[in-house]
Specification:
Strand order of the largest sheet: 2-1-3-4-5-11
Largest sheet: 6 strands, parallel
Distance between the termini: 67 Å
Radius of gyration: 23 Å
Strand content: 15-25%
Length: 339
């Protein structure tokens, strides 16, 4: 049996007054959309069933295509995007690509068959410089609004949302240099991926400033996984680096494992920097120093751009670039030879 609604509990959960809760529950006007959303969220969190009058009809379906769920940064993006869509009355449809499963093109076709209002692409083929951008040109020609996160292609006429990958690599290198590290390596994904290429550019420019014109021997390309980071980290350690910058948090965890297998301590002997600041990464051993990807601002901007296009408002066909933030924790310290 459903428990009776308690205004006190809902108000405390939503951090609003009981009078505001009452107005929302009774469908009264004069309540801001954000406040209304907080009250509805409180109902859901507390396990109350929403009154029939509050069950809104969806404004439409919006597809969200992501590469996988194993890297925690993708579910983090998906959660914020879905919350933003729900706050505007849209129903998100999550599509995940898995090896041997549906391709991005097949997922788009399935979403179109279901009559979606728009599509959000996260780290999709638009981030792969070897992929044919014509697929997105055809999608635009069909009039279906879409927005692309993490990756850029000048041949695609759509809004892009990205972190500043070049700045991310530069700030990670400068952090290690400030700690006295002189031999610094970079573990990233294949060159054909735009975020990897941009991080490599930032890494090269940072090393050039330090008087190392040829950074290529210190760049190890690998898979965006723990195993990839393990392999790349081992290769870089064999070249004598004392600091490793990684293209993702899982890769950084793999690099730490490679260091420990060699009897090296992190951070006393080797410092490791990740990228993303994925959920729970602050609780690893040691807590990971990483460059935080601004997930919430990026996801919110992507949804905003998409819904503007859906409403018929002209959207700027450009790349919106967001600044990352260095988060210093326990996986970096003074270089072994530094005083």
């Amino acid at each position: 049996m459903t428990s009776p609604l308690r205004l006190t509990d809902i108000a405390a959960q939503a951090q609003v007054s009981e009078a505001t809760v009452s107005r929302v529950l009774n469908g009264k006007a004069g309540v801001a959309a954000g406040t209304r959303h907080k009250v509805l969220a409180a109902l859901d969190v507390l396990g109350y069933e929403r009154p029939v009058r509050l069950r809104r009809r969806s404004n439409g379906l919006v597809g969200l295509i992501i590469p996988e769920l194993t890297n925690p940064i993708f579910p983090a993006f998906a959660q914020v995007i879905e919350q933003a869509l729900a706050g505007h009355g849209y129903t998100p449809v999550l599509c995940t690509q898995t090896p041997g499963g549906a391709t991005e093109d097949e997922l788009v076709e399935q979403l179109e068959e279901r009559g979606v209002t728009g599509i959000v692409f996260l780290s999709g083929l638009h981030a792969d410089s070897a992929a044919d951008p014509a697929r997105y040109q055809r999608l635009a020609a069909r009039g279906l609004p879409f927005v692309l996160i993490n990756g850029f292609n000048e041949h695609v006429n759509a809004p892009f949302v990205s972190p500043d990958d070049r700045a991310a690599a530069r700030m990670a290198v400068r952090h290690l240099v400030d700690l006295g590290h002189e031999r610094i390596g970079l573990a990233i994904g294949p060159t054909r991926y735009v975020p990897s290429a941009r991080k490599a550019e930032g890494f090269r420019s940072a090393l050039a400033e330090l008087g190392t014109p040829d950074a290529e021997p210190y760049i190890q390309r690998t898979l965006f996984t723990v195993e990839g980071g393990h392999a790349a980290g081992g290769a870089l350690l064999d070249r004598g680096v004392t600091g490793i910058v990684c293209g993702s948090d899982p890769m950084a965890l793999g690099a730490i494992r490679a260091a420990r297998e060699r009897g090296l301590r992190v951070p006393q002997d080797v410092s490791v920097v990740g990228f993303d600041d994925s959920p729970l990464i602050a609780f690893t051993d040691p807590p990971l120093t990483t460059v935080r990807q601004p997930v919430r601002p990026m996801a919110t901007a992507a949804v905003g751009a998409l819904l503007e296009a859906v409403s018929g408002t002209p959207v700027q066909r450009t790349e919106f670039v967001f600044q990352p933030e260095l988060v210093v924790r326990g996986s970096t310290s003074q270089a072994p030879s530094a005083p």
